[in-house]
Amino acid sequence: MKKYAQVIVDNNSIYTDNFFTYEIPDDILDQIKIGHRVLVPFGKSNKPIQGFIFDILDENEEHKNTKKIIDILDEEPLLRDVDIKIIKWMKDEYLCKFIEAIDCIYPKGYRVNTYKVIHLVNNNFTYENLRFEEKKIIDEILKHKGKISLDKLKKNIKSNIDSYIKKLREKRIIQITWESKSIKNEKYVYSLRLNIQNSEVENTIQSLNKKRSFKQAQIISFLANKEKVLLDDLIKELKVTKSSIKSLQEKDLIKIEKIDYFRKIETTYKIDEKEINLNQEQIKAVNILKSNIQNESKKPFLLHGVTGSGKTEVYIKIIQEMLSLGKDSIVLVPEISLTPQTIARFKNRFNDTIALLHSRLSDGQRQDEYKRIKQGKAKIVIGARSAIFAPCKDLGIVIIDEFHESSYKSETSPKYNTIEVAKKLCEETGSILLLGSATPSIDEYYKCEIGEYNKIELKNRANNKQMPPIEVIDMKEELNNGNKSIFSRALYEAIDNNLVNKTQTILFLNRRGYANFISCRKCSYLFKCSSCDISLTYHKYKNIAKCHYCGYEVEVPKKCPSCDSLYLKEFGIGTEKIEEEIKKYFPNARVLRMDRDTTSKKGSHEDILNKFKNGQADILIGTQMISKGLDFPNVTLVGILSADMMLNFPDFKSSEKTFQIINQVAGRAGRDLLKGRVILQTYDTEHYSIRYAKNYDYLGFYNEEIKIRKIFNYKPFNSLISVVVFGKNEKSVIKNIQKIYDAVIYVLNKKGINNFQFILGPNPCPISKINNNYRWQILFKDLDIEIKLLKGIIKYICIEKRDFLLDSDVSLSIDTDPESIL
DNA sequence: AGCACGCCGACT
DNA sequence: GTCGGCGTGCTC
Fold first, then answer.
1. What does the alpha-carbon distance between residue A610 and residue A594 come to, in Å, rounded to a whole number?
2. How many cofactor units bind, and how (predicted)?
3. Do residue A688 and residue A788 come from a single domain?
4. Across the strands, what pairs with A255?
5. Distance CA A693, CA A685 (A)
6. Hey, what long-range contacts does A475-478 have (CB within 8 A, 24 or more apart)?
7. pLDDT at site A769
8. At A361, is the secondary structure helix, strand, or coil?
9. A611 Cβ contact partners less than 8 Å away, ≥ 6 residues apart
10. Model pLDDT for residues A212-228, shown as the tens digit of each residue
11. On chain A, which terminus has fewer CB atoms closer than 10 Å, C or N?
């Protein structure tokens, strides 16, 4: 009986974002499964493209003209059953296309290359009657055994031949079809062994020598009495070429076996392995988790453990438990704390059972890791956000460390929230979800309060040390007392002290570059990016002004470009400036700076950390990058240079973020035997973020913040959906965002809703231009309206009716619960 | 999206 | 004629 497949095709268009029905040919009927990647003919020209099987049906009621699937592209289905569920869920949740959700899941090296080939179909033509160019085409095709790729043909015949090809086609002399090649970017090694009995070896060698196949004879004698030899070794050893090996294979004298080769990932960072001795709190935490493994319905766990309370040890113990049950674990870490140090900690413990997935892997390496997980060779996956989609076979637990980090929200469509995806994944697979943080996000902590999550607490630091005391310094006061420097007197003295005592200092400022902007003091000319609505950051070392959004750089002239005065001045501070000031005040101090500018080279990250760890520097200056996971026993002082810098951001999460980052950076001091000290400089000493952070009082902060969220209808009480229209043509952008607004109002009116308080906009985005794209947004809150209904309406207007409604010169971005609305 | 096709103006 | 540029319509 014929069967039919429901296929999602790899075509990133809204019009093809639905199931296509294909007939399954008999020869693959018994192999094909849901989740398989297949090759299907598509469109008028039957171009072969990738597709994904979402369902297999016995009948095909709706369509008459079904085409047949060409082939299956992988032995095993690329998508697991749970992947299919997640894809469907993501599509609804994040208002994205099927193919966008699918793209999150399978490694991007798997693809199909297509090209057109031109071949002779008919010999019933008189060559002599053809025109010169037509002859040339036919000659070229015949030269390549009756078939050549169109690209190659055009390259070989340099003149324009399109019209002659068309003519030949009309005369039915040639035909153009599509061909394809499946690319997997996989690496294999090959092993050789004899395919003849030992007793036959002598004879074979003799007969080969007779035919003057000396190299082949040499290979046979080399292989004799050996179990297996690697192809590469053989080639090196005997200085033979692949051709002699190939002919031996054709004569069936040897067997070649393909072996998966896994490219090694280098980790240069080494740490001394400490024996894990869990304290009472940690043991209790592990036991709670363990007792839940068999539990049918699993609530997620929120592990609230103060900095240094040993969350990682808890993770390791529960992973060990999972391993002993044969189950897989996924550990997600924010990209910036996926440091060699963190990796080494897990690697030391689990060795080769670990697969690593992060942005710095090459495509090949990522592919290898993917395969190792898929084949069950790696049972523990450590990675950033996207590792949540790792193809584990039998998942036991998902751990999201530092789950409050904003990097768990994807910035590209689909703009998924990793915690939500993980929750769905765990629900579907019956796995445990463990969210760990010292400073939980307000949203998730609220879910503990209302009983959606179980809470586990680690209240004490593993070594029972107190958190280092935080001294808050009022920089307004410093200024009043005549100190114009970026260092308060207290911080200056503390740094000086540390230099004398030969202990180390970390200075934190969440901004790279030298100064945030540069302008003319005479005419107030401001250096701005030509393609973005952003002032340029000054990088003194290179003497450039740089746009941190699009990367645009311009050399800073001596004179003001507008009024020719010499009064150009930079304002605000960045890490580069701190480095300069430190060198000015403490010329003998050895300084390292770690930010995106100094870590762009591969391995530079490791370099800086290793140097600091080995005591080759006294002071480490850095951005967010240094706020996490670093464990340096000799650091006794942490200076937070401008704690309130983030507070001025127009973002409802800025208080939360400030509180979190102070906590994290402070935790870098006094981690070992030496006593730590934190100096926090701010202009706003009375802000509640700073007040509670000073005492490491998470609950106090939470209670204050949750009240504000309630009053202003922010998360977790209300959702926010942002719709941004952007494009090069500002008028068109405005016109189109207005169309969306009008359409939403129209639909709402029809549904009897007349109060539009919950819609904000359309307005220009706070950053109104990026990369020459003008940006306008509408914000929707689910106030007095069901979130499902709201999403439905937005989906209907912005996705389903998009082409009908919107012009083609604008693009659209939808973000549910955006991390930032800039 | 991305492909094919068809129509139209420009140009040897 | 004939080249190529763009607008249109469809994808099992």
1. 12
2. Binds 2 zinc ions per subunit.
3. no
4. A193
5. 11
6. A475/A642, A475/A681, A475/A682, A475/A683, A476/A683
7. 83
8. coil
9. A592, A617
10. 887 888 888 877 777 77
11. N
The C1' atom of B8 and the CA atom of A115 lie apart, in whole Å, by 30
Share of chain A above pLDDT 90, in %: 33
Structure tokens given for A821: 């609305």
Cα dihedral: A579, A582, A586, A587 (round 10): 30
A566: which 2 tokens?
């010499």
Sheet hosting strand A470-474, strand order edge to edge: A470-474, A677-682, A635-640, A504-508, A619-622, A591-594
A561 and A543 together in one domain:
yes
| Bridge partner list, A435 | A302, A400
**A43: which nucleotide lies closest, measuring CA to C1'?**
C11
Highest mean pLDDT among A83-87, A311-315, A530-534, A709-713: A83-87
Residue A266 lies inside a defined structural domain of this protein = no
Would you say residue A136 lies in a domain? yes
Angstrom distance (rounded) from CA A631 to CA A342: 10
* Strand blocks (E) in A70-186: 71-72, 111-120, 147-149, 174-183
- Total number of domains in chain A: 7
Beta bridge partners of A393: none
Give me the CATH number covering residue A123: 1.10.10
Contacts of A277 (CB under 8 A, 6+ apart): none
A400 and A539 belong to one structural domain:
no
Question: Annotation-wise, does A96 bind a ligand?
Answer: no
A122 and A163 co-located in one domain: yes
d(C-alpha A271, C-alpha A400), whole Å: 23
CA distances from A30 to A1, A7, A25, A623 (A): 12, 17, 10, 56
Q: Give per-residue pLDDT as tens, A742-789.
A: 988 988 888 888 888 888 878 888 888 888 888 899 999 888 788 888
Please indicate, yes or no, if residue A465 is contained in any of the structural domains: no
Contact A508, A638 (CB under 8 A): yes
Same domain, A589 and A670: yes
Query: Are A315 and A370 contained in the same domain?
Result: yes
Burial (CB < 10 A; 0-12, 13-18, 19+), residue A669, is: buried
**A798 known member of a binding site:** no
Q: What is the mean pLDDT of chain A?
A: 86
Q: What's the token pair of residue A356?
A: 């690593």
Judgement on whether residues A789 and A807 belong to the same structural domain of the protein: yes
- The residue segments making up the domain with residue A769 are 720-816
Q: Is the CB of A13 under 7 A from strand B?
A: yes
Give the end-to-end CA distance of chain A in Å, rounded to a whole number: 56
Residue A432: its pLDDT value, please? 95
- Judge whether A529 is annotated as a binding position: yes
Instruction: Locate all alpha helices (DSSP H) within A211-275, ordered by sequence.
Output: 214-223, 231-238, 242-250
Instruction: Give CA–CA dist A147/A163, Å, rounded.
Output: 19
Q: Which residue has the tokens 């966008």?
A: A100
Residue A586 maps to a domain:
yes
The whole-number Å distance from A808's CA to B10's C1' is 28
Tell me which protein residue sits closest to nucleotide B2, measuring alpha carbon to C1': A11
Q: Is the CB of A12 under 7 A from strand B?
A: yes
Residues A13 and A150 in one domain: no
Is the Cα torsion angle A445, A447, A450, A453 positive or negative in sign? Answer: negative
Structure tokens of A815?
Answer: 């973000």
Nucleotide closest to A20 measured between CA and C1': C12
Total-model pTM = 0.86
- Provide the β-strand partners of residue A775: A726
**Alpha-carbon distance values, A481 to A485, A488, A492 (Å):** 11, 10, 15
Residue type, A417: N
Q: Residue A260's closest CA among A343, A358, A349, A191?
A: A191
The residue to which tokens 């009756």 are assigned: A146
Q: Which two tokens stand for residue A202?
A: 């002598």
Residue A765 annotated in ligand binding: no
> Stated in angstroms, how far is A806 CA from B8 C1'?
27
CA distances from A261 to A186, A230, A419 (A): 8, 12, 33
What is the β-pairing status of strands A111-120 and A147-149? Answer: antiparallel
